[in-house]
């Protein structure tokens, strides 16, 4: 199912969406032990298109019984060695084939994410490109990471071997369904592990389609499985399993803390977390092109409806340019209004569901009550008379005590702070429970180097926001988590080191 490159119009996407139905082959069952199956107890969950309110499908809702079967199949695959002991070059070939299949079905996969969680289809296509790039990068890394020979005397040989962890459970969020999935499963599979994917109950459809492509690519039985369902049911069961060796999670800080507790209550499994953020974006008066910077600052928070872990939700502006710069941000926001997610021209789509929609509106109400100045947005809106949409919303005059300036909203709400000195800017930026990302805009290289080193953040974007590729790791510090996605460093996380010491005859 695909679109010709010249046919990716609004109407063409609408026509393709009409074909994605259960009656026409849309997969809604769990993928366990190399087969699509209903949940053991027959339970289902309803996935809804937030742009229209229409139900898309009834999807299998797995629980502990399904997790037990999947974990057993994954363990059998590890022990059997068809993947875990397969030569790295052969694993690479399978993963590259999977990447090619994803590319061939990119329109279908992107559309599933758009329908499921409301993001613009143009954004979903960008996510797909990132997911495919991640899979190809990790596949190419497989046969380029070497073990070590330790320095010893003539009477010994010390080897450091790199081995798979075993069974890896990946729990991914709804905001970037396939891209976050690729960031987790690509290095885990590349390292030789068996992977159980738990997609968000709000966006399970693309993960189930990915399972069929993985099967077609040649991943052996039990090596990749998909268990749709809720976090408190199947997610909890995977986290507490004594046979799961590692949890890889992207999501809220609260759930991340819970997963670490589950790991301690079970088998001390490794836990890699990428959690929440309240990222500062620092703008100094010496910037050359404030119009360009303003557009980037607006996109940093309004992209993907603000449902982004690294959203630049705290804008810190030097007071000497603050008033003029905020006006430029407001002008940029005018061009970023929500529209039909199936329209390639739409910059923003719908909020993922009614609960998130109400959560964001509640934060906006709190911002007004706490005394911040609402400069634009703030009211729910509809597209074609329906849907869960919120326009770009900007608050000025935000202080450190306000909820909109401290808590992760996960919506299109920008909090603007002012500062007068470099010291004050750094203090404001670091005054947060989170440390996932930070932005810095300045032409002063000395200032850039000073501040970059002082920002308590896993990543710092200098004169850009989120311009990254697969070669650099992604992750945070403080309550933003401890894991790292992307780059060869993530491949290293999904393997164990085994030391071998041989005594040699002399």
Automatic annotation (TrEMBL):
It holds the Pfam family Aldedh. The active site is at 274. Keywords: Oxidoreductase. The keyword Oxidoreductase applies. SUPFAM superfamilies: ALDH-like (SSF53720). It comes from the Bacteria. InterPro entries: Ald_DH/histidinol_DH, Ald_DH_C, Ald_DH_CS_CYS, Ald_DH_CS_GLU, Ald_DH_N, Aldehyde_DH_dom. GO terms for molecular function: aldehyde dehydrogenase [NAD(P)+] activity. Gene3D superfamilies: Aldehyde Dehydrogenase, Chain A, domain 1, Aldehyde Dehydrogenase, Chain A, domain 2. Residues 37-500 form the Aldehyde dehydrogenase domain. Belongs to the aldehyde dehydrogenase family. This is Gamma-glutamyl-gamma-aminobutyraldehyde dehydrogenase.
């Amino acid at each position: 199912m695909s679109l010709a490159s010249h046919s990716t119009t609004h109407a063409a996407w609408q026509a393709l969406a009409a074909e994605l139905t259960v009656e026409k082959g849309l997969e809604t069952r769990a993928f366990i032990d190399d087969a699509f199956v209903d949940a053991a107890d027959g339970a289902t969950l309803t996935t809804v298109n937030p742009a229209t309110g229409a139900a898309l499908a009834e999807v299998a809702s797995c629980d502990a019984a399904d997790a037990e079967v999947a974990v057993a199949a994954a363990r059998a695959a590890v022990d059997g060695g068809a993947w875990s002991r397969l030569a790295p070059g052969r694993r690479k070939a399978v993963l590259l084939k999977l990447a090619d299949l994803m590319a061939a079905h990119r329109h279908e996969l992107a559309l599933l994410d758009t329908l499921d969680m409301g993001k613009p289809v143009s954004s979903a296509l960008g996510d797909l490109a990132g997911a495919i790039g991640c899979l190809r990068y990790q596949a190419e890394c497989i046969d380029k990471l070497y073990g070590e020979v330790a320095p010893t005397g003539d009477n010994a040989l010390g080897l450091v071997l790199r081995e798979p962890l075993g069974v890896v459970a990946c729990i991914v969020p709804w905001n970037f369904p396939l891209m976050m999935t690729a960031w987790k499963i690509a290095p885990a599979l590349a390292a030789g592990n068996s992977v159980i994917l738990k997609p968000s109950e709000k966006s399970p459809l693309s993960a189930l389609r990915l399972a069929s492509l993985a099967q077609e690519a040649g991943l052996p039985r039990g090596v990749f499985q998909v268990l749709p369902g809720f976090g408190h049911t199947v997610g909890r069961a995977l986290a507490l399993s004594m046979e799961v060796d590692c949890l890889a999670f992207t999501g809220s800080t609260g759930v991340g803390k819970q997963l670490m507790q589950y790991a301690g209550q079970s088998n001390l499994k490794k836990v890699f977390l990428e959690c929440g953020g309240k990222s500062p974006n620092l703008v100094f008066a010496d910037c050359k092109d404030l119009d360009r910077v303003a557009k980037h600052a607006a996109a940093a928070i309004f992209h993907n409806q603000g449902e982004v872990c690294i959203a630049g939700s705290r804008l810190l502006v030097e007071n000497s340019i603050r008033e003029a710069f905020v006006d430029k941000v407001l002008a940029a926001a005018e061009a970023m209004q929500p529209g039909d997610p199936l329209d390639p021209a739409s910059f923003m789509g719908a909020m993922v569901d009614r609960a998130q929609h109400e959560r964001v509106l509640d934060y906006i109400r709190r911002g007004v009550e706490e005394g911040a100045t609402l400069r634009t947005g703030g009211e729910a809106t509809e597209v074609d008379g329906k849907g869960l949409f919120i326009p770009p919303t900007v608050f000025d005059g935000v202080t450190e005590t306000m909820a909109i300036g401290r808590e992760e909203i996960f919506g299109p709400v920008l909090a603007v702070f002012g500062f007068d000195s470099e010291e004050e800017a750094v203090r404001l930026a670091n005054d947060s429970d989170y440390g996932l990302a930070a932005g810095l805009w300045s032409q002063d290289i000395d200032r850039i180097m000073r501040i970059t080193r002082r920002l308590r953040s896993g990543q710092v974007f200098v004169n850009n926001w989120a311009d990254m590729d697969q070669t650099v790791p992604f992750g945070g510090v403080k309550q933003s988590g401890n894991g790292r996605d992307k780059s060869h460093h993530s491949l290293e996380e999904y393997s164990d080191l085994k030391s071998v010491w041989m005594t040699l005859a002399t």
